[in-house]
Specification:
- This protein has a 5-stranded parallel β-sheet. A 3-stranded antiparallel β-sheet has the order 4-8-7, with no helix packed on it. A 3-stranded parallel β-sheet has the order 11-12-13.
- The chain has 405 residues and is an alpha/beta fold.
- A hairpin with a 6-residue loop joins β7 and β8.
- The chain is built from 12 helices and 13 strands.
- The N terminus and C terminus are likely disordered.
Length: 405
């Protein structure tokens, strides 16, 4: 084969071609495919992020080189994108290739997913002062029903203010932890537990395997940073997360050698050579803005600490996909310049991730404020015109359909 391509080329070119063929001959298939995947991803100039109710047509018409979406239109399996849907989204308006990654949380379980059982958790009323439900207090008029239709008991605090938390039942899987109060319906998991990992990958019905079967180019792993929350109780948690991601990558590439592995956050793991070797890019939320205070620049020390870790990915030739949740053009222009100078690829969106923000959606703050006010006014008017919510007989409360996520 080498003789067929060497006629008419220089001796140096012959040597280069010989080295290339040698590398191809000795590299295992998945390893070579990963190298090619990294090379392709390294060339990306833009990306988009829309995991809640992703709109295929909006994605098809967008200019982005990479998009991150849910594998399903609604998060539920019966609305999962088909291979044909994914193929259409993989083509940009100019006919060039787009990479479509599927979101998958591996550090939390989500109550709207196909694997969830309704009887795994039950609602519990908790007072702002910390008092929890108590069978001795039968004030349950406004408490939600659990999976069996029983009223959740509550204990009324002096202030009269409550919040509802969903807590695992005793019969729930041992890997299921407490609910994330910031994102209702999302539960921390003991990600090192084999039974949880079996839900994520390893069979035709597993989460990752469904994503691969649908034709996605890769997976976008969320809550990789869950290891930071268990450091005290589980010192091996960091290494176990590296092992988990490595196992995900190994399984995926057996099925699809060029499958991309892109974790979000958890940049401390970039210090681990084994981790750096199996991922193809890394995403980072709120590097410069919005953490810990929404709408405010981040403390310089925090920015420096995270950026130094992310620089390890850049030096390894991996793309860094940075998302900042802000749309005001005065800010995004500054942030874009900063992120680009660091070698990162920026995207500016909304924290709910329920719509794909295009470059033309970034506008001066005054225009955005006026548009938001007009939208609120329109929504209020529509609410007045809307019919009363349907009442469910015997429940004594309205139950509008939808809104799971």
């Amino acid at each position: 084969m080498l003789l067929l391509v060497t006629n008419g080329i220089s001796r140096m070119q012959q040597i280069i071609w010989a080295l290339i063929f040698l590398v191809l001959a000795v590299l295992p298939g998945p390893a070579y495919a990963q190298t090619a995947t990294r090379s392709r991803l390294k060339s990306i100039q833009s990306w988009g992020y829309n995991i809640q109710k992703p709109n295929a047509e909006a994605i098809i018409g967008s200019p982005y080189d990479v998009v991150v979406i849910d594998y399903s239109r609604t998060g539920e399996d019966d609305e999962a994108f088909t291979p044909d849907d994914v193929r259409r989204m993989q083509v940009k308006p100019d006919g060039s290739r787009r990479y479509v990654l599927a979101y998958m949380s591996i550090g939390e379980a989500e109550s709207y997913r196909y694997y969830w059982h309704a009887d795994w958790a039950e609602p519990l009323r908790v007072a702002e002062g910390g008092a929890v439900a108590d069978e001795s207090d039968e004030d349950t008029e406004d408490a939600p029903n659990d999976a069996k239709g029983k009223k959740a008991p509550s204990k009324r605090p002096t202030s009269g203010k409550y919040k509802i938390l969903n807590v695992p039942r005793l019969s729930a899987p041992p890997w299921l932890g407490r609910e994330n109060e910031g994102w209702p319906g999302n539960f921390l998991v003991r990600y090192w537990d084999k039974n949880w990992q079996d839900i994520i990958f390893g069979s035709k019905t597993a989460y990752l395997d469904r994503i691969i079967a649908a034709g996605f180019d890769g997976v976008f792993l969320d809550r990789v940073d869950a290891f930071t929350g268990v450091a005290d109780e589980r010192p091996a948690g960091r290494a176990e997360m590296v092992a988990f991601v490595t196992a995900i990558a190994s399984h995926a590439r057996k099925l699809k050698p060029d499958f991309a592995i892109v974790p979000q956050n958890g940049e401390d793991l970039l210090l681990e050579p084994a981790y750096l070797a199996v991922i193809d890019a890394i995403a980072k939320e709120d590097l410069l803005f919005g953490h810990p205070n929404e709408g405010q620049p981040n403390p310089p020390a925090e920015v420096t600490r995270a950026a130094e870790k992310l620089a390890l990915a850049v030096r390894a030739g991996l793309p860094v996909l940075a998302v900042e949740y802000i749309l005001a053009k005065e800010k995004t222009d500054q942030l874009r310049a900063d992120l680009t100078a660091r070698g990162f690829t920026p995207y500016f969106g909304v924290r709910t991730l329920d719509r794909l923000i295009l470059p033309e959606d970034l506008k001066p703050a005054t225009i955005l404020a006026a548009a938001a006010a007009a939208a609120a006014k329109s929504a209020a008017a529509a609410a007045k015109r809307a019919p009363a919510p349907r009442q469910v007989k015997g429940k004594g409360r309205s139950t509008p359909k939808g809104g799971k996520r």
